[in-house]
């Protein structure tokens, strides 16, 4: 048997001496990441942007009656203020879509439904408020927070 | 060990890895999108220990490519393959290069490297740094999954009888 395999077979414990060094290094790395991420934390967010294939299609400021549409996106985006949802259709047949849900009170936004894939990773991404992003890779749709921006005039 | 035995054993472990990957994808992610337990990595580590390093890399490539296609998420290959290759390289170097490091610690180190590199690759490809805020939490999930995978591999090696291991290796 190989030496490594022999060591595992002969040892009584699953740990070894140099494991401490590895765990210490990992702990320092994780703590450094937590501190650096918190240091970059933005302050307030009053809305979110929606991008499709890196083109901004919509900006919504929490509490507004309607969002601001860009690049004729109001043709394929449906805004429902009662249900607090925005449905983005990605094809002419309207078979591919993403449903974005937002909360004006909490000032948060999340993806609530999508036809992207069987795993629907974008739907399981946590709500975002001041930081983070929600990305739907198959549909190339991205949601990112707007920081302290006033409403833009509607562009038709 | 005859090459045909190695090839057959590698194929069996690769199949088990793909099956585990596909089943894992059926379950919802752990706390953060894309975070999985990494049960399929058990078979990659077993290949590394029982058969050899090159065969472990082959099992990894087969798992990532076929598993992503069968799970219906081919774009995952872009994120998983480079990070998986680097993580397995680190695990191999740690286990065979450093004398007193356990397979559990190697698994933990590999898991953390894998998830953090996947996250960074995702941010680079999507040109979005917003997802970087999940990096520390993904690293913690990586530590947990690395511990589980490492312990599972350790227990499997301990349980397997010596005469069987001598036939396989």
Structure overview:
The complex is a heterodimer of chains A (156) and B (169). Chain A is of the alpha+beta class. Chain A has helices spanning 3-10, 19-39, 121-124; strands at residues 47-52, 55-61, 68-69, 77-80, 85-89, 97-103, 108-114, 134-136, 141-146. The longest helix of chain A has 21 residues, at 19-39. With 169 residues, chain B is mainly alpha-helical. Helix content of chain B is 77%, strand content 0%. Chain B has 7 helices and no strands. Chain B starts with a helix and ends with a helix. The interface between A and B is large, with 40 and 50 residues.
Features:
heterodimer; A: 156 residues; five-stranded antiparallel beta sheet; four-stranded antiparallel beta sheet; disordered C terminus; B: 169 residues
Q: What general outline of chain A do the C-alpha atoms trace?
A: elongated
Task: Tell me the structural class of chain B.
Answer: mainly alpha
Tally of individual helices of chain A = 3
Which protein chains are joined by the largest interface, and how many residues does each one contribute? Answer: A-B, 40 and 50 residues
Which radius of gyration of chain A do the C-alpha atoms yield?
23 Å
Written as H for each helix and E for each strand, in order along the chain, the element string of chain B is HHHHHHH
Name the assembly state.
Answer: heterodimer
Radius of gyration of chain B: 16 Å
Query: Which regions of chain A are unreliable across 5 or more consecutive residues at pLDDT < 50?
Result: 149-156
Distance between the termini of chain A: 73 Å
How large a portion of the residues of chain A is in β-strands, by DSSP E?
25-35%
Shape of chain B: globular
Percent range of helical residues of chain B = over 70%
Terminal CA distance of chain B reads 6 Å
Please provide the count of β strands of chain A: 9
| Biggest sheet record of chain B | none
